[in-house]
Amino acid sequence: MVDEKLKKDFANDITLLKYIGVNPVVIHGGGPQINKVLDAMGITSKFVRGMRYTDDETMDVVEMVLGGKVNKDIVARINRQGGKAVGLTGKDGMLITAEKMTIYHKVDENKPPEIIDPGMVGNVSHINPDIIHTLTAKGFIPIIAPVGLGVNGETYNINADVVASKIAAALKAERLMLVTDVDGVLDTDKKLISSVDAKTIKNMIDADQIKGGMIPKVECALDAVKNNVKKSHIINGKLPHAVLLELFTDSGIGTQVFVD
After folding, report:
1. How far apart are CA 176 and CA 168, in angstroms?
2. C-alpha to C-alpha distances, 196 to 8, 178, 189, 191, 199, nearest whole angstrom
3. N or C terminus: which one in the chain shows less Cβ crowding within 10 Å?
4. Ranges of H-type helices in the chain
5. How far apart are CA 23 and CA 15, in angstroms?
6. What would the mean pLDDT of 38-47 be, rounded to a whole number?
7. Hey, is 255 helix, strand or coil?
8. How far is the C-alpha of 139 from the C-alpha of 133, rounded, in Å?
């Protein structure tokens, strides 16, 4: 979502899906855009175990960028292509209830785990999909920023893949598509694996064949297919019309994740 041509292609694809009878729901992140605004404001980005440490000041920027600039840019692009997109955050209609995330990092079997506080980073505790059902039934395309609301009114920054997985499960979606910047899951020869099951994924993680940022993506994909979603896909959004190619070609262009 930082390349102008790809942004236009994506908006076209989502509009087309709605036109042919599919009900797309878009959940987006915005890391590069958040970094840009934080840098401009002189706020140093800190990361804890790969996650952005989110204090109150950073949370204000995250909510502003995700719920404002990024969200409304996607909405406007889809609307310009003839779609009817509506921007939401998890606060709207009590869509996403969240709770504070605590990270437990065990470095020594003989010592208690290290407890890490990532700030206002949250986990999804509940999804209320009523507002999504209402919008899609009226022909609208929901565009959702991954910001959740705590039980005491706190605002939480949540990983977009996690939110997408949980919303897909709550909707009993046909497909979850995780659009990233790599082709999908690769084998030991760095060749794309077009389809992979849960047992194989576990073995590949244990063997360090799936590692780094791909681990949470495959975990989100698996979580979805274990909870009401028929199929999950990990695809490279840098390929033009990636969503359509994955859905409507025989072999697809990414990795399909399924449960035995």
Report:
1. 6
2. 31, 15, 16, 13, 8
3. C
4. 4-19, 31-40, 56-64, 71-80, 130-137, 160-171, 198-206, 214-225, 242-248
5. 10
6. 87
7. strand
8. 10
Q: 55 and 157: one domain? A: yes
Residues 7 and 90 in one domain: yes
Tokens of 112: 């208690």
The three-state DSSP-derived secondary structure of 76-122 is HHHHHCCCCEEEEECCHHHCEEEEECCEEECCCCCCCCEEECCECEE
Q: Are residues 182 and 165 in the same domain?
A: no
**153 and 219 fall within a common domain:** no
Q: Are residues 21 and 148 in the same domain?
A: yes
**CATH number of the domain within which 200 lies:** 3.40.1160.10
- Domain holding 182, by residue range, is 174-260
176-234 tens-digit pLDDT: 999 999 999 998 888 999 999 988 998 998 888 888 888 889 999 999 999 999 999 99
Residues 260, 199: contact at Cβ < 8 Å? yes
Residues 153 and 184 in one domain: no
Q: Is there a contact between 232 and 257 (Cβ–Cβ < 8 Å)?
A: yes
**CA dist., res. 103 & res. 49, Å (int):** 8
127 & 225 share domain: no
Residue 36's pLDDT is what? 92
Those residues whose C-beta lies under 8 Å from the C-beta of residue 39, and which sit 6 or more positions away, are 45
pTM here is 0.92
- State how far the Cα of 189 lies from the Cα of 17, in Å rounded to an integer: 34
Token pair recorded at residue 253: 């262009």
And the tokens for 16? 């087309």
